[in-house]
Design brief:
Layout: E1 6-7, E2 10-18, H1 22-31, E3 37-43, H2 47-52, E4 61-70, H3 74-85, E5 93-100, E6 103-104, H4 109-115
Helix pairs in contact: 1-3
Length: about 120
């Protein structure tokens, strides 16, 4: 069995937003360096009733987009996603950043050599 290589200094950006904005958010994130995103369709409750009383229609079908980025990219990525999603508009969604303690995945031999980790 091979040695586990842990990646650190990683942040998880989670964005919950109106489904119509998902493609523009993915494109904006890709343009500032995102390599991978995971999108999940969700159905929420609570917000619709609250905003409904004010006469604002809030769609309860949302997408959750999760990005894993290096800590030094998180501010740039967060700002790009916020602007693309137009999260300054009521009822569109929200986002947050969570620190990730460590990540383990396949690391190509060339990258392991560059990092000074012995290849298998």
């Amino acid at each position: 069995m091979s040695e586990i290589i842990y990646l650190t200094d990683v942040a998880l950006i989670t964005c919950v937003l109106d489904k119509k904005r998902t493609e523009s958010v993915l494109l904006a994130a890709r343009n500032v360096g995102a390599r991978v995103a995971s999108v999940h369709a969700v159905h929420g409750w609570g917000v619709r009733e609250r905003f409904g009383a004010l006469g604002v229609a809030v769609e309860s079908e949302k997408d959750v987009i999760v990005f894993m980025v290096s800590s030094d990219q998180q501010d740039l990525m967060f700002e790009a996603i916020y602007k693309a999603a137009e999260l300054n508009v009521p009822g569109i969604g929200y986002m947050f950043v969570s620190p990730v303690e460590r990540v383990a995945t396949y690391v190509p031999e060339a990258v392991r050599k560059e990092l000074g980790v012995n290849p298998e």
